[in-house]
């Protein structure tokens, strides 16, 4: 049985403080450039603390958030990272992207170079340059050691935390940080530092994108594509600041990226994300993903089937006829695809059209004789046959 | 025995009692409590029975209004919904529960429950405390209600041992007219 040993209140409070700092850094940072040189031992200890917290946080994420695996997409993102990564990157940092299957529009980085990118955010991007800017922003957080900077800004509290954290081995502070700490969040100073580090990551990230020969204007389209969900409106300010920071002449080597290539890399993700959103009943998000998929791949059979499923399950006025149309388009794209046959059969079955339904169910069974849901299909078929025989009598 | 489970149960019972003005609504179903098992009193429209404690094995029979959205997906069931679609809502609801890990459906088939068309699910999951539960879940829609009959047990120790007992409970299940 997993019994968590809760540390003493004071230990929990200080542990919570450091966790707040790391969490805060994950969401966005701050502050002027170079680290204040001073007591090297203290810096080393802070770096150790950060490293420890990083591992803890990553373990916590791994426990609660499923990774999204798509080797082709991961390779594509890895190539962008390679293009972006400056030669003077800090030693010991291994930039890598971890895709998290999550609808939230979020990306964050850890001091060890791990960049966590939520699939919900990735599906909002329209071109490679936008992704480049997003990754460059996070790379700047990593290479400029922004996490350590914030920790340094909280040196006294952090040092105290470090001393007290050496004893307990609890994981519980991740579950009740606010309750344990009695703090409402980072101090004003840390918040201010956070904002300035964010701006630095934006500005230097844009430089990184230009050096990698992306067109910065194309990269900055990211703010347009995220504006709907930018409830605080900070994106407008950030975009304006970056447009102002653009060099008067864009280097001729900077080129627009091929959006169709980017779209192809995202197809599987869009499909999976639409399925995920459908599972959660988030119709609008599911529709957004699948409609974008079909925009890039108009004859994607599974995409049409999924669009039909979203409409059928949403079941608003006019949804079912539209769903039928997409099921038929799925069949037209891939006649051997069993699911849309079953789906059309179900619509007829529910409308009491047993003769129509029967043909589609039989076809579905013939196309996928080993499908997991065939017990259901057979039960529908039996009911259709009983109805038809009753009508014929 | 896990205290949190019982706390949740008691809390839900208390909340239900607030909502219903202190009295338990009349159940529209009945089932036999097996010998050696005990029914844990609740104020909700459900029967909860166990032999050794909820973290060993339990049978939970519950009626819920169709109009009540599910907690995580906010989806609702509708009258006349096919059993397969109802089963899909249940599966999605469990998948959306962040306290549940390693959820895996091992069976999803049509079933008859007290003469009603429904579904039978079998699945395995790990709860927030790391316990691995194996569950059999029957469900069907009748009128404006969704009925479910659930048997859960910690996989290794109790599932097979008490499965036959559950089947007896399942066979004894019937809908009753409320006076």
Question: Beta-strand percentage of chain A?
Answer: under 5%
The assembly state of the depicted protein chains is heterodimer
Total domains of chain A? 2
Number of strands of chain B: 9
**Domain unit count of chain B:** 1
Rg measurement of chain B, Å? 16 Å
Rounded average pLDDT of chain A: 81
The count of β-strands of chain A is 3
Outline the low-pLDDT stretches of chain A: 1-18, 20-36, 161-183
Write a structural description:
- The complex is a heterodimer of chains A (393) and B (179).
- With 393 residues, chain A is mainly α.
- Chain A has two domains: 9-245, no CATH class; 268-392, Serine Threonine Protein Phosphatase 5, Tetratricopeptide repeat (Alpha Horseshoe), CATH 1.25.40.10.
- In chain A, helix 16 runs antiparallel to helix 17.
- The longest helix of chain A has 25 residues, at 40-64.
- Chain A has helices at 9-27, 40-64, 71-84, 119-122, 128-143, 146-153, 155-165, 177-181, 188-211, 216-219, 221-226, 234-245, 259-279, 283-296, 301-314, 319-333, 338-350, 354-367, 374-392, and strands spanning 96-100, 107-109, 114-118.
- Residues 1-18, 20-36 and 161-183 of chain A have low confidence and may be disordered.
- Chain A is elongated and about 95 Å long.
- Helix content of chain A is 66%, strand content 3%.
- Chain B has 179 residues and is α+β, with helices and mostly antiparallel strands.
- Chain B has one domain (3-175): Mog1/PsbP, alpha/beta/alpha sandwich (Protein Transport Mog1p, Chain A, 3-Layer(aba) Sandwich), CATH 3.40.1000.10.
- Chain B has helices spanning 3-19, 83-95, 159-172; strands at 29-30, 38-40, 46-50, 57-65, 101-113, 116-126, 132-142, 145-154, 174-175.
- In chain B, the strands form two sheets. A seven-stranded antiparallel beta sheet of chain B has the order 2-3-4-8-7-6-5, sandwiched between helices. In chain B, strands 1-9 form a two-stranded antiparallel ribbon.
- In chain B, strand 2 (38-40) and strand 3 (46-50) form a beta hairpin.
- Chain B is globular.
- At the A-B interface, helix 17 and helix 19 of A face helix 2 and strand 5 of B.
């Amino acid at each position: 049985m997993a019994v968590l040993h809760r540390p003493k209140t004071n230990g929990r409070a200080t542990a919570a403080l450091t966790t707040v700092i790391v969490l805060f850094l994950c969401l966005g940072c701050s502050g002027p450039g170079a680290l204040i040189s001073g007591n090297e031992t203290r810096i080393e200890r802070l770096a150790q603390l950060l490293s420890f917290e990083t591992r803890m946080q990553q373990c916590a994420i791994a426990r609660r958030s499923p990774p999204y695996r798509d080797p082709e997409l991961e390779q594509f993102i890895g190539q962008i990272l390679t293009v972006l990564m400056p030669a003077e990157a800090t030693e010991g940092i291994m930039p890598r992207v971890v895709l998290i299957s999550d609808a939230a529009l979020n990306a964050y980085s850890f001091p060890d170079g791990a960049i966590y990118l939520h699939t919900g955010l990735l599906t909002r991007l329209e071109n490679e340059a936008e992704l480049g800017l997003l990754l460059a922003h996070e790379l700047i957080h990593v290479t400029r050691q922004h996490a350590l900077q914030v920790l340094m800004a909280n040196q006294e509290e952090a040092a105290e935390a470090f001393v007290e954290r050496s004893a307990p081995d609890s994981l519980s502070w991740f579950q009740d940080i606010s309750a344990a700490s009695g703090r409402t969040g980072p101090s004003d100073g840390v918040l201010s530092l956070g904002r300035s580090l964010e701006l630095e990551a934006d500005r230097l990230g844009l430089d990184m994108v230009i050096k990698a020969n992306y067109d910065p204007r194309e990269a900055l389209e990211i703010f347009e594509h995220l504006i709907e969900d930018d409830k605080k409106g900070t994106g407008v300010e950030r975009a304006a600041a970056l447009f102002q920071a653009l060099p008067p002449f864009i280097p001729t080597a900077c080129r627009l990226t091929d959006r169709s290539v980017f779209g192809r890399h995202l197809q599987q993700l869009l499909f999976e994300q639409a399925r995920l959103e459908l599972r959660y009943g988030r119709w609008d998000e599911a529709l957004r993903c699948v409609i974008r998929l079909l925009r890039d791949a108009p004859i994607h059979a599974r995409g049409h089937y999924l669009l039909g499923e979203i409409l059928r399950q949403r079941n608003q006025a006019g949804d079912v006829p539209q769903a039928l149309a997409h099921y038929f388009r799925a069949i037209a794209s891939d006649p051997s695809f069993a699911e849309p046959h079953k789906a059309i059969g179900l619509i007829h079955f529910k409308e009491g059209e047993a003769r129509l339904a029967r043909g589609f169910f039989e076809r579905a069974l013939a196309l996928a004789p080993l499908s997991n849901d065939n017990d259901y299909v057979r039960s529908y078929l039996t009911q259709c046959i009983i109805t038809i025989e009753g009508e014929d009598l | 025995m896990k205290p949190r489970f019982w706390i949740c149960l008691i809390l839900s019972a208390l909340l239900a009692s607030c909502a219903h003005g202190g009295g338990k609504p009349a159940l529209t179903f009945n089932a036999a409590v097996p010998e050696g098992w005990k029914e844990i009193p609740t104020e909700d429209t459900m029967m909860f029975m166990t032999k050794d404690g909820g973290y060993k094995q339990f049978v939970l029979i519950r009626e819920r209004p169709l109009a009540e959205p599910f907690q995580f997906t906010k989806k609702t069931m509708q009258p006349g919904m096919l059993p397969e679609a109802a089963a899909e809502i249940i599966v999605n609801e469990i998948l959306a529960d962040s306290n549940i890990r390693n959820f895996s459906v091992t069976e999803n088939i049509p079933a008859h429950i007290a003469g009603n068309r429904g579904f039978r699910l079998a699945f395995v999951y790990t709860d927030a405390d790391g316990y691995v539960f194996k569950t059999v879940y029957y469900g069907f829609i009748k009128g404006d209600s969704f009925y479910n009959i659930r048997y859960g047990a910690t996989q290794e120790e109790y599932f097979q041992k008490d499965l036959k007992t559950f089947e007896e409970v399942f066979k004894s299940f019937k809908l009753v007219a409320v006076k």
